[in-house]
Amino acid sequence: MNEVFVHEHALMHGLSEEQVLHAWRNAVSVARRGCESGEVDFVAIGFDQHGRAIEMTGRIKSFGVLIFHANTPPTTRALKELGLGGGDHGCGH
Nearest to residue 75, comparing CAs of 39, 40, 43? Predict the structure, then answer.
């Protein structure tokens, strides 16, 4: 998974290709998602060059990883899926 490409659809929320690639390469949490089609997706949260959290979804392709979704700030759903959504941290409160 060394080659990473950004689909133009991932840029529709105003992020640049450089921001998305930087965030992907600096992901703090990544989870694998199985697809009904048999393909493999990954959801990740990483930070761009300015420390802004970016949610991304990429799919493994024969040529590498294709990031087809990116937005900031990350959604509550993605944060929860990656175990970053807050809630009970075992403190008994």
Answer: 43
- Reading the chain (93 residues) residue by residue, the pLDDT tens digits are 579 999 999 999 999 999 999 999 999 999 998 778 878 899 999 999 999 999 999 999 999 999 999 999 999 999 999 999 755 444 443
* 62, two tokens: 């024969």
Q: Nearest CA to 6 among 71, 52, 51?
A: 71
- Residue 46's H or E segment, with its range, is strand 40-47
- pTM for the predicted model, two decimal places: 0.85
* Residue position matching structure tokens 């600096």: 26
Distance CA 30, CA 88 (A): 21
